[in-house]
Amino acid sequence: MTEFKLPDIGEGIVECEVVEWRIAEGDAIEEDQPVVEVMTDKALVEITAPEAGRVTKLHVPKGEIAKVHAPLFAYQTADGEPAAEPEDVEASAPSPQAGADTDTGASGVEAPAPRAGKVCPAEQERPERAAAGQGPHGRIPASPAVRRLVREHDLRLEDVPGSGKDGRVLKEDVLALIEGGRATASGDTRGERRDEGQQDIRVEPLRGVRAAMARQMVAAASTIPHFQYGEEIDVTALLALRERLKPRAEAREIKLTLMPFFMKAMALAIRDYPLLNSRLNEAGDEIHYLPCCNIGMAVDGRAGLMVPNVKGVEGLSLLDVAGEIQRLTGAAREGRVAQADLQGGTISISNIGALGGTYAAPIINAPEAAIVAIGKSQWLPRFDDAGEVTRRAIMTVTWAGDHRLLDGGTIARFCNAWKGYLEDPETMLLELS
After folding, report:
1. Over the stretch 147-171, which tens digit does the pLDDT of each residue have?
2. Which of 8, 32, 101, 403 is catalytic?
3. How far apart are alpha carbons 117 and 328 in whole angstroms?
4. Is 403 an annotated catalytic residue?
5. Contact criterion met (CB below 8 Å) for 67 and 122
6. Taking CA atoms, which of 16, 80, 158, 432 is between 20 and 30 Å from 282?
7. Catalytic choice (79, 272, 407, 424)
8. pTM for this predicted structure
9. Model confidence pLDDT, tens digit, residues 188-232
């Protein structure tokens, strides 16, 4: 029998959640067949089978967390032989977090590394069980998700009667105790009467991309002094140009939105104001000017908020940028963005206007120096050069800059340059190389 263990892929990812099993115990599997979807704090990742065989055990239930190098599932190879020799380090490791269940009859053989280009690390805490619901180190068996639920309700794990094997505390055990305590409290205060308007509170662990976003936003908001700057941009000419170019883009099966124009104009403005494409080192005593404009865009995807970035915008054509945006947006909405697409961003755009917002105060995507929130375009009355009222498409933008690097004048001059390209988009042709 072979144990499939998830490898450590780095990037600081130490755990992932099992989102969906595509297989069940007893199923036959083929090499490269998708077997499970897992959620890291970066993206939703599909894991494939390393070789053909038959599944004998799923170690990590759906919705639970697993650790790197811990078994995810076990299988019998097609020829009945182990896929590799056992590793002495794994077999002799005394830590209860490293071993698999001892009652499965597993040989402890580690499966070959998955063939998928990107796999997430997994984490599963599975100590050996002893009598009285305690592990060999006196620890009550329970999954990380259950332990988190216990903490969220200010309970003690030892107070929860475990109904699982060897006294393992299950999620249902915790919920039953919570319900029992609620009923008792209701009986003490109301004589067994329950308020008909009372509703149960649904508890959901904060995991994956949403947990990563929470940590990133707290760190950015608490360590970076934000400077906000707002402006209005007349995009009447830009909308007309896009309408003229859309058929050419559609002929290449590319959807041409305003975002490629925003990015190209931003890359051009950065040439004159490179401080917007820089960052501080960790010590805060050096400015690092970055050679490429890797412009990120916030996408509200299946896994949560993600900010993939288009690499080297300054060297791409408008259609190239549009194609990359289309690819990244589709991947983000499916939660399947590659790690490389999430790394290396230098400045970001949040197109909140696509959902209907007019103004927003964005939080910088550290370690970047700036981010802009783009509001929706509105047809509003404005005075022309002759003093006559005319109908114009007006878009609001709000910049947030790292005030350690950027002062108000720098952001204002940069925004004016960016605005100039967007209000008179044909001038970008003079600057394109």
Report:
1. 778 877 878 877 888 877 667 788 8
2. 403
3. 17
4. yes
5. yes
6. 16
7. 407
8. 0.64
9. 444 444 455 567 888 888 877 788 888 889 999 999 999 999 999
